Each structure stands twice: as C-alpha cells, then as structure tokens.
Target: Glutamate--tRNA ligase
Amino acid sequence: MGSKVRARFAPSPTGFLHIGSLRTALYAFALARHEGGDFILRIEDTDQKREVAGSTQAIQDTLKKFNLLWDEIYVQSERHKTGIYEKAAKKLVEEGHAFYCQCKAKNAKEEGFSNVLRDPCRDKKLSSGAIKLKVPENKVLTYYDFVHKKDISWNTDTVYDATLLKSDGFPTYHLAAMVDDLDMKISHILRGHDWLPSTPIHLLVFEYLGGKRPEIGHLTDILSATTGKKLSKRRDSVFAEQFLQEGYLPEALLNFIMLLGWAPKDNRELFTLSEFVEHFDIQGFQEANPRFLQNKLDWFNGEYIRKLSDESLNSKFKIQNEKFAELTEEKQLQITKLVKDRIAKISDLENIAGFFWKPHKVDKAILGGNSDSHLTDALNIISNIDKWELEELNDKLMAKIKEKGYKIGDFFMDLRVALTGSKFTPPINDSIIILGKDKTINRLKSVL
Model:
C-alpha cells in the first residue's frame, strides 16, 4: 500500500460503544495490523453538549475487552487547547476558502446558523463570528471509495457552506477530524455510511488544508433482522456491553461482526482476532447491507463456549451467577459439564440449570395422568439405591418401566417436571446424580 498504513477509530463519547462502532474499530484495527501499521484511537469530544460523563473511559474499557489495543490515543478537547483547530480555520479564511458568519438562529446566542445553501455572510468580509467553509461554484468533487470499490462524485452546487469553527472557538467534526487526519498522517478512513453526504465538505477541507488526503471508505449499515431497517437504539440491542452482560463471549461477538460487511475468499466463518488480521483483505468489504441475525450470533457463541475448558466456562458462570457460585466446586463443575453442549450464551445457565439451586416449585397441572404411579415407583427405587451412580440409576429405572409397562417418555417427563419444575432441562438422570440422593427424595415426596 505504499507509505505506512495508519488507521484510526474516532468515537464520540456520547454513551456506550455501539455494535456498529465496534465493527468500525475492528476493521480499522485489522487493516492497520495486517499491513504492519498503526491503529490510532481518537476521542472526538469537541461537541461538549453531547458528551456523557464517563464515556471516554468506558469506550477504552470496552475496546480492551475485545483486545482491540491502540498504538496511540488522542483526545480532541485536549488538542483544542493547543489552538490547532482555530489556527487551521483562520488559515482557510486568510486564503479565501472560509469566511466569518454572524447569522443567528432564533433564541440562540451562537453564530453561524444560516440554513441556506449559500450563506448570506460569505461576501461580507466580516472579521469575527463562526467560521464557515466557502464552497466554490460548479466544481466536481470525486474520490474513490475503497469499501464500495468505485468513484463517487458531487457537484459543489449541491454542497452547503458548512460551519468549521463555532463562535465559542470549538471546531465542528468537519474541521477537527480533517485537521487531525492530516496531522496524524492517517492513511485510511473507515467510517459509517451516514457520513457519506458530508464527504464533499471533507474533500474540500482536505484540499484547502493541503497534505496527503487519506483513502476513504464508508461501511455498510447493519440492519435489524426484524424490521429490515438500520439498527436502532429504540428497537434493538445495539451496545457491545449489553451483549457481554447477556452472556456473549467477546471473541464470539467479534467473530460475528467480522462477517457483517466483510467476507473472506473461501467462505470460512470461524476466525480468532489474530487469524482475522492475518487473512484480512481490503477487497473483502461488501456493498450489501448485512442483517443482524440473532440466531447466527447464538451459533457463534455456542461454538466458542464449546472451545472453552470446563474450568474456564465454570469461572464465567460463577462471575455471572451468584447462586451458582455458592455451590461446592465439585457440583459447579458437574453442572458445567452437563450444560456445556446445550447453551448458546453464559446467561442460559439460569434457565437450563437453575433448578439445582432455586427454590423447588412445581405446577402439578403439567404432570401426566399416571404421575402418581411414576413418581411413587421412582421414589422407591431412588430411596433404596445402593451405589449413587448413573449406570445403576439408569438400569433400575428402566427395569421398573419395563416391569410396569410404562411409556418411557411419559415416565421420565413426570420425573423431570417433579424434580425441576420444567419440561426442558439437561438429561434428567444425570441431573438426579448431581442433585444428590437426599434432595431428590425430598423433592419427590413434596410433589407426592
């Protein structure tokens, strides 16, 4: 790719990290690392009104959980104090590419608020106010989008005079991001599709400031599987931390979003982060908007759960479930091994195995018509069993079923419901061994 690749992830600290932003960070990271370049984290916090306290640290903490570690970090509000953005804006004014504007919106103190394509202040030669871009007439602006793999063009007659520096001295995104991209020698800009309409403004700012313009690529929108529309904070789970709290593993979530807008040449699906970096190819970006399929994410997560050692999975269960953590270490590991192949996320433990530690409750209405006979025979066998082992339990229950002519499915369903309160659990005989003889007997007696 010629000169050193430097890609940046530039979030605004307005709350938790959006899943789409995590994908942008991942792609920028992979692009930089694949080429042996630098991954830059830049916190774009010059819009102080929108900043949410604690977000800057939260963004860094989340990126660390996904192992997307940066080489350099910058905070725009700190850079603002050096005067770098004001200096750039004034340079544009001096060279005739920008102008001062004193227009105000109704009930607003700030200047630079005209809402027409050509600002009425652009030829007034004012010496104070907000600084706005002086868009030239009838000029064609073109760049090659490396995600869309094509040239995209605008005529400047459709581009408005955008505000670059507000009257309070703070830059807008249109100025700050471009100044920083040039100053930090960013080689590739990867950003969301919603920035595409602003690109002609940025092309002009890059041109007027001088220096080597970065390559630009606009990523696809991630669509909700239910609505077919762009993922929405109101309708969908969209924050990376939400998914981690729900019991998705960082490695699985990262693998899932890798393939929401990028595809390998061989249709491979499972990638660790290092494997993704190794196989990353800028030509793999796709133009079609991907759908966020929850069942696909669940599949990925299940695959990664199965790869964990029993001890590692057990420790994750303990972190997420206090009641589980109160069981003996031996019981914890027995339960972990029992559910490992049956869960899609860490939080499924409560639904599938909560009966081991929750208060015993049974809705007798879901027991079968022969439940009294089934449970009485089961109680007698379990009470008199000598070796508390799965094989002996299996043999003796099956012998009784055969002797009495019970239907196997009905018998074990009644036993399952009586002991767990649910029709959906891990294998019931394995569960009985873990539950223990005394607890099993007490539960059967309470139902009978």
About this structure: The mean pLDDT is 94. The domain at 364-447 is CATH 1.10.10.350 (Arc Repressor Mutant, subunit A). Residues 89 and 142 are 23 Å apart (CA to CA).
